[in-house]
C-alpha cells in the first residue's frame, strides 16, 4: 500500500472506527449501486419566463402525471387524475379553491391524503430509506415515514394508516400536510436538474427563477451568453451593464432591475429626460407584455435610446482596446456620415456598403470623437456600476451561477453545453485567439471559463478587467461558443431598415451537426464514449412550425430550446422543448404555450403536450452506471481496504 492510500484509510478510520461500521457502510453503498438511476430533467433558454418555468419544474415535463397514471391506472377517472396533478403542482392555491367550494371538506382531505401517500410510495421506491428520510420536511418527517413504511407487525394495517390520517384531519393539520406531501413528490420525481443556459433577459422574472434554483435540491447550470452578460454586469463591467439595461428596456422589463433587484435607475431616467428630452426616440419602441405599465412608455423609450448609445460607445472603446477580438466591423459610430445621414457597414471581405440611417438624432455623440462618453454619461455609468456591484441579491444569484455552473458539463456520460463548439466549414475545430494564443475545442471552453471566473473573483485589478472584457466577448464575440454567430447586429436592427443588414451568420457547427463524424469528433474531444454519449444543446430555437426537429444525428445530439421565451413562440410554433432521462431511457417533451399559473390551477390544465422517446435503454440503468456510481465504487474500494487493514492489524480499530 502506498503512502497516499494509507493516508486515505486513516482519514476514513476516523469516520468508521471499527470493522463493523466499515462493513455496514459497504453493504449500504453496494445496495445503493443496484437501485435504478435517478431521473434527470433538462431545461434551457428559460429567458425570464418564470411562470412557465415553475410549471415545467413542478410537473417534471410530464413525469408527475406519468407516475399518477402508473400508480392509479383505471382505478380513478381522468378528471380525478388532473385534479390530483394540479394539487401536487399548486397545493396552496388549490387548497384555497377547494376550501371555498367543497361541501364535504373532511372527505376531500381523506381521499386526497390517501392518494398523495400512495404517490409518495411510488416516487420514493427507487431511493434508499436514508435518502428519502433526508428529503422529508422536518415538521412531518416522522408521520410521513410511518405512512410510507410497511409495518409487518401490524395486523390491521389499513386501520392503522386510516387512524393517522383521521388524526391529521381532526387536529386541523391537513392543509399543511397536503402541502408538505405535494412538495415532497415534486422533489422525489426529479433527482437532478440541468439548466442548459440562458436564464436571463426577455421575460420579466429571472430573479424569481434564480430564487427557485438557489433553493432546488440538486441542480447544475451551463452558462448561456445571456447569463454571462449578467455575470459580467454583476462584476461591474460597464459594457455588460449597458447591454443588460438596454435589453431590459427593450422588452419592458426595467421593473426586473428596479423592483426585482432593487437597482436604482433614477440617475439614468434623469439623464435621459435631460439629454434626450427633445430627441426622436421612435426607433426605440418597447416590446410590451401584459403587465407593462404604458404610462412609463415615453420615459422608457428615452432611457432605452440613452443606454443604447452609451452601449455602443463603451463597446467601441473595448473593441479598440482589444484588437485580438477581431471585432472591428462592430465599430460603427465612426462610420456614420452625419451630413449625408448614412453609415458604411463592412460586410466580410467585401467592400463596405452604405446604408441610410433611420435615426440621426444623437445629442450626446461627438462626430469627431464618437466613442467618448460625455461627462454626464460617465457619472450615470459610475452610479449604475456601483448599484450593480453592491446589489446583494444579484451578487448572491451570480455566486450561485459560479458555484453550480460552467460553460459545459459532462454528466453521466453526456455532454451539455449551451451554444456550439466553434467549427470551420471543413469540419475542423475553429481556432480562437485569447490574449495572444489560439485555442480549439475543449481547450477554448476551458480558457474562456477561466477568464470568466477571474473577471469576478480576481483580486488584482488588471487581471480582473481582462476577465471582465472576456466575459463581454463571450456574450457576443465571433469565436464565443455560447454565442455561435459571426456578429451581433444590434446597431443594424435599430438604425438600418434593410433586413439583409440584420442577418447574423451562424457558425458552421449548425450546418455540420447532422453528420456522425462531427458528433463523434466533439465527443472524443471531450473524452466521451462515442457509442453511448449524447450532446444536449440549447441556444437556438427549434422552428417546429417549419418542420424542424430537435433530434439531430439520429438522436445523438438534442437541441432542446423550442421557445420558452414568448418573443420566440410565433417563430417556433411551440413553447419549449425539455428532456427527461430516467433509468429506462430518454424522452423529449414538447410544450404548448402557457397561459398562466392561475389558469392552470382553475382549469386544472397542464402545460405538457406530448413526448417522444429519443432512446430506450437496452437494460434498466442503475446507480452503478452513473457518475455517482463511480464515486461509490471508489469509496467501496477504500472501505474494503480499510476493512482489510483492521483485520491484519495495520490500523487499530476502536472497540
Provide keyphrases for this structure.
alpha/beta; 17 strands; seven-stranded mixed β-sheet; 655 residues
> Based on helices, strands and strand pairing, what is the structural class?
alpha/beta
Q: Give the beta-strand count.
A: 17
Strand percentage lies at: 5-15%
Oligomer: single chain
Sheet with the most strands, sense and barrel status: 7 strands, mixed
N/C terminus separation: 25 Å
Helix segment count? 27
Cα Rg: 28 Å
Mean pLDDT: 91
Choose one word for the global shape. Answer: globular
Strand order of the largest sheet: 7-3-2-1-15-16-17
- Unreliably modeled segments: none
Instruction: Name the helicity range.
Output: 40-55%
Protein model, in words:
This protein is an alpha/beta fold and 655 residues long. The protein has a seven-stranded mixed β-sheet. It has a five-stranded mixed β-sheet with strand order 8-9-12-14-13, with no helix packed on it. Strands 4-5-6 form a three-stranded antiparallel β-sheet, with no helix packed on it. It is globular, with a radius of gyration of 28 Å.
Brief summary:
A 7-stranded mixed beta sheet has the order 7-3-2-1-15-16-17. It has 655 residues and is an alpha/beta fold. The chain is built from 27 helices and 17 strands.
